[in-house]
Automatic annotation (TrEMBL):
A single Gene Ontology CC term: plasma membrane
The keyword Nucleotide-binding is annotated on this UniProt entry: no
Role, per record: Catalyzes the transfer of the diacylglyceryl group from phosphatidylglycerol to the sulfhydryl group of the N-terminal cysteine of a prolipoprotein, the first step in the formation of mature lipoproteins.
Species in which this protein is naturally found: Marinospirillum celere
Transmembrane segments: 20-36, 56-74, 94-111, 172-190, 196-214, 226-253
Taxonomic lineage: Bacteria, Pseudomonadati, Pseudomonadota, Gammaproteobacteria, Oceanospirillales
The family this protein is said to belong to: Belongs to the Lgt family.
Record EC number: 2.5.1.145
Compartment annotation: Cell membrane
HAMAP family: Lgt
Residues given in the record as a 1,2-diacyl-sn-glycero-3-phospho-(1'-sn-glycerol) binding sites: R137
Cell membrane among keywords: yes
Keywords: Cell membrane, Lipoprotein, Membrane, Transferase, Transmembrane, Transmembrane helix
Name of the protein described by the UniProt record: Phosphatidylglycerol--prolipoprotein diacylglyceryl transferase
GO MF, one example: phosphatidylglycerol-prolipoprotein diacylglyceryl transferase activity
């Protein structure tokens, strides 16, 4: 059993303002994605300034979509009881699947504004997305939240507030799978010209599959537990992503125009 490195979730303070590691991981993720996007800006024929606008659109989509998705998928009853809770972002609560839908809407709006094929824009953004996903999971680990299920593996950890039993550090599994591994696969795949939509499709299949697998080691939300046939909410939300990704890749390779 390993000892959980009890890290202060507050990175530093600026007078009455406390800056949390979780927020910093998101900022670093967005910053890295912005920097990498600037290196590939010529693929879309966008200027450096337009890449900044694209990053802003995506960031707003992540925040709004992530919050609304968390409320809809995991705490809809709480919203009904206290609608203003939805606006209290400082109390925490974000969901990837909601954030994903928010980014899709943001990309469609940006594509219309700049008269770009939105699937081509999706292919451009997809390889950059795992950066933020992985760093966000590191933020979860630092916060000691979203821990894994009880386990007997040698690297199990006892998380504060999770009882005396060692648990899977599932946040680190997700960092390695949905963050690092998915980034490498998508980055290498996107280095060569691909049919438009295929990179986006691979992201959907890759993230959905890796999230589905990681959920087997992650403790289900206490108020939801496991749902039908023993699957978690995260797994049920990932299945449509996998199906949509497969369909998109099949369509892309049958249609064949290249995205870059």
């Amino acid at each position: 059993m390993l000892t959980y490195p009890d890290i202060n979730p507050v990175a530093f303070g600026l007078g009455p303002i406390q800056v949390h590691w979780y927020g910093l991981t998101y900022m670093v993720g967005i910053g890295l994605a912005w920097w990498l996007a600037r290196q590939r800006a010529d693929r879309l024929g966008l200027s450096k300034d337009q890449i900044g606008d694209l990053t802003f659109y995506a960031a707003v989509g992540v925040i709004l979509g992530g919050r609304f998705g968390y409320a809809l998928f995991y705490h809809f009853d709480r919203v009904l009881a206290d609608p203003l809770w939805l606006l209290r972002l400082w109390e925490g609560g974000m969901a990837f699947h909601g954030g994903f839908l928010g980014v899709v809407v943001a990309l469609i709006l940006f594509a219309r504004k700049h008269r770009l094929p939105w699937l081509k824009l999706g292919d451009f953004v997809a390889p950059l997305t795992p950066i933020g996903l992985g760093l966000g999971r590191l933020g979860n680990f630092i916060n000691g939240e979203l821990w894994g299920r009880v386990t007997e593996v040698p690297w199990g950890m006892v998380f504060p507030g999770a009882g005396p039993d060692p648990r899977h550090p599932s946040q680190l599994y997700q960092f390695a799978l949905e963050g690092l591994a998915l980034f490498i696969v998508l980055w290498l795949f996107s280095r060569k010209p691909r049919p438009m939509g295929s990179i986006s499709g691979l992201f959907l299949v890759g993230y959905g599959s890796l999230r589905f697998l990681a959920e087997f080691t992650r403790e289900p939300d206490a108020h939801l537990g496991l749902l039908a046939i023993g699957l978690s909410m995260g797994q049920w939300l990932s299945l449509p992503m996998i199906a949509a990704g497969i369909a998109l890749m099949v369509w892309a390779y049958r249609r064949q125009p290249q995205t870059n």
